[in-house]
Amino acid sequence: MFKPEILAPAGNMEKLQMAVTYGADAVYFAGSQLGLRAGAKNFKEEEIKEAVDYCHDHGVKAYITVNVIAHDEHLIGIEDYLTFLNSIGADAIIVSDPGVLQLAKKFAPNAEIHLSTQANTTNAQTANFWHDVGVDRIVLARELTLEEITQIIQRKKDTLKIEAFVHGAMCISYSGRCLLSSYMTGRNANLGDCAHPCRWKYNLVEEMRPDEYYPVIEDENGTFIMNSKDLCTITFLDQLYQAGIESFKIEGRMKSAYYNAIVVRSYKHALKEVMEGKPIDPYWLDEIKKASHRDFTPGFYFGNPKEEGQLYTSSSYIRHYDFVGRVLDYDESTGMATVEQRNKFSVGDTVEIFGPDIRHFDATITQMLDHKGQAIESAPHAQQIIQIKVPQPVKPWDLIRKQREDV
Ligand code: SF4
Asked: Could you tell me if 349 and 365 are in contact, meaning their C-beta atoms sit under 8 angstroms apart?
């Protein structure tokens, strides 16, 4: 049976491990050079090998982004870098620049070539053109409707694969081709260093009155004229499946490891339900909302969202839960879990615990011990190792979250 891949982002090793543990079929990430998302920590060369090995040991594919819009100076050393990626068994190189594509074919012959969404492929003719010059998979532009995607899939060559974004932040410009950040801050989005000025709040200022801000008013909250909502397709994933999209891509290399766990797990389970012919359980959308997010939009899947795709009131994330700990171990005889703290939590708090394949359950913390086995009232230190009593068995990589008090 046709099974689309769940493709997850990884900005560092922990995010990658979380994506793998929570059900990703493939992971994409960048080395410290030539991959967009300079703000993510990314991977140094020895770490890239470790990351690829980790993926392969768990039956997961590893795709490396080399998708900058390159000027000549950015290509210095690229042959060695691509040769290295080939030698460590990268499953695919994600490119957007035809010159980089040509070099990747030559210096990383064992890897597939995936054409980044930055290349803005919007029709079957273009998709087939790229296939003819060596592209194995197209990451479609995010600005396509489901009907257009269906047409492309019907008209593309059989051996060409199609990937599409299913979740995450959107760009106001054409799939990231944007000079706004470069113009306003000197940070170049096309080299992975976007400062996100599209999210800022704008006013009008007359040159001679620098302290007087004239609001450009959408409503009483001001104007965020270019601030897109986040894409979320989980409620209509069945339609993306029926269209024949082979890879469901999640955006978010800059997002947290907790985000990766929640979002990958939700899409994995929703896809399983779709493939079993069942309705998608609304639980998975509720789960996604427990990671920080903006309001959701279906993007362009059902037509240009126009003003419905924008957020006019705030550019802040909605965050109802704090990720407070990750389970490292569990002692069946005592019912105590060893936990690495991520945010402060205390005895008496009610938390939610969940794992890759278990729905969350509530637990009120009745007992907490420090690393010496001494009773403590709270875990205030980042990455503090503690033990807590849990009401049912847990496993390493299960996560603990707590509802925020301001909700
Ligand atoms: S400024 Fe906004 S629209 Fe432009 S590349 Fe950055 S995120 Fe995308």
From this structure: yes
Ligand 1 centroid–CA 363 distance in Å is 41
User: What is the CATH class of 5-173+228-309?
Assistant: alpha beta
Please determine, for residue 37, whether its predicted confidence score (pLDDT) is greater than 80: no
Our mutation pick for probing the ligand 1 site, out of 36, 117, 175, 178, counting the most ligand atoms within 8 A of Cβ, is 178
Interatomic CA distance for residues 171 and 20, integer angstroms: 26
pTM of this prediction exceeds 0.85? yes
Give the Cα separation of 5 and 7 in Å (integer).
6
From-to residues of CATH 2.40.30.10 in the chain = 321-403
User: From CA 358, how far away is CA 265, in angstroms rounded?
Assistant: 10
pLDDT in tens, 356-373: 998 999 999 999 999 999
CB of 32 within 6 A of ligand 1: the answer is: no
> In this structure, is the dihedral angle defined by the CA atoms of residues 356, 357, 363 and 368, taken in order, positive or negative?
negative
3-state secondary structure of 258: helix
Reported as a single tens digit per residue, the pLDDT across 203-244 is 788 888 888 887 776 665 556 677 889 999 999 999 999 999
Q: How many helices (H) and strands (E) does the chain have?
A: 10, 21
Q: Domain spanning 321-403 has what CATH number?
A: 2.40.30.10
